[in-house]
Write a structure and sequence with these properties.
By secondary structure, the protein is mainly alpha-helical. It has three domains: 168 residues, MFS general substrate transporter like domains (Growth Hormone, Chain: A, Up-down Bundle); 51 residues; 220 residues, MFS general substrate transporter like domains (Growth Hormone, Chain: A, Up-down Bundle). Helix content is 77%, strand content 1%. It has 17 helices and two strands. The chain has a two-stranded antiparallel ribbon. Helix 1 runs antiparallel to helix 7, helix 2 packs antiparallel against helix 3 and helix 3 runs antiparallel to helix 7.
Length: 478
Amino acid sequence: MTLFMAYLDSSALNVALPTIHLDLHAGVADLQWVADAYLLVLASLLMLSGSIGDRFGRRRLFTSGLLLFTLGSALCSAAPTIGALIVFRMVQALGGCFLVPASLSIVRQVFSDPVERARAIGVWSAMFGLGIAAGPIIGGALVSSVGWRSVFWVNIPIGLATWQLARRVVPESRAARGRKFDPVGQLLMVAALATVTYGLIEGPTMGWGSAVIIAMLCAASASLVVLLAVERRRDEPLLEAHFFRSPPFSAATAIAVASFLALSGFLFVNTLYLQEVRGDSALVAGTSILPATVAIAVCSIGAGHLIGRVGTRIPLALGGVCIAAGGALLLNLDPQTSFLLLVASYTLLGCGFGLVNPPITHTGVSGMPPERAGVASAITSASRQLGNVLGVAVMGSMVSAATLGSGRLAGGFASRFTTDSRLSWAVLVACGVVCTLAALAFTGRRGMRAAARVYHDDPHVVVGPRATDQPLSPPVVG
């Protein structure tokens, strides 16, 4: 329920952005911040939240996240200004970053039988596709009939109902030995992500050569360099640099960033195209991208079966090809582009995203000892969110030139969008190529053998389990 709610909220909000622009007098950069404020918090705190749940209790973290997400949704629905909406989105994200890691940890702890656990995780994973598929339709219907604020109202009853259910039926659990906190690494990660996002979003408005933008991008680079230097010296770092010596892990991380950069950037820019360039209503725009969202849901399920038969290499490479092909069909997009061509492009892109996402974590932990897999999974999950942040920031900035100096969508937006958006669709093609090449080069048998050598030499690997999940109390069934 929570995973469905989170992804429903994310995909429904994209459809509501043009209406928010009109109601709150927002520019393109403001709309980017509405999307990226949530994603930025999620990317920054995702790995920390997993450690908090392991140490203090997963149900406690999960229910706290539900309340924060619900409160943030209520505040977003009442936001009087675009600035307030951005701040309230960060409150919502603070709850969201507790939900996903805790929910997966709870599923893994409750289902001890390997077969049942695999089925349960399959159901859990399917919610990603269902939420993405349902969001544009539900969001479009709500925005067209009630208004953009109703997109956030939906979360309130679902959040409260799930919070009550979780308190009654979810057992508390925590790791016998939690990972140490890494406050320095956490602060450096936040600084790196926040400064690069600010620089990319505000660059078109303030000017790429302005002192503020240059300072932000330099600060992002410096924070990343210091982060890598600091993390190499810690026994239990927030970011395990040693993992990147494993070809499958590095490939999984690159594919996660590239594919989700493409997904979030596509959803953001395509929403502006459908509503601001073609003049579609929110409901029509939400219905128009149904081929993409349905393809994501169907191919996500199909990818799971494919992994069991042929491994992760083929679905990852095939997904990259589909993303590149779908992006290529949009390179000559204009206001009169045939709807059939859009359907073909959206379907290919949806198939690509659906095929790529399920194998990422499986690839990232290939060759790892079990005691290292949890941290690696957290890094690949954070890489997905990093891709989401960069997609809105990078591809959104590429079409910001289509606005007037004030940053408002106006007059010649439709004609200028045609030219300025070509570079953003080229980014989709490049992301698909990256996914395909990384999969073919690093996820085969040679990569697996290299990964095994890396973790065999890892001084942090301990033989035998370091931490086991211990239930603190049995579930109380009402």
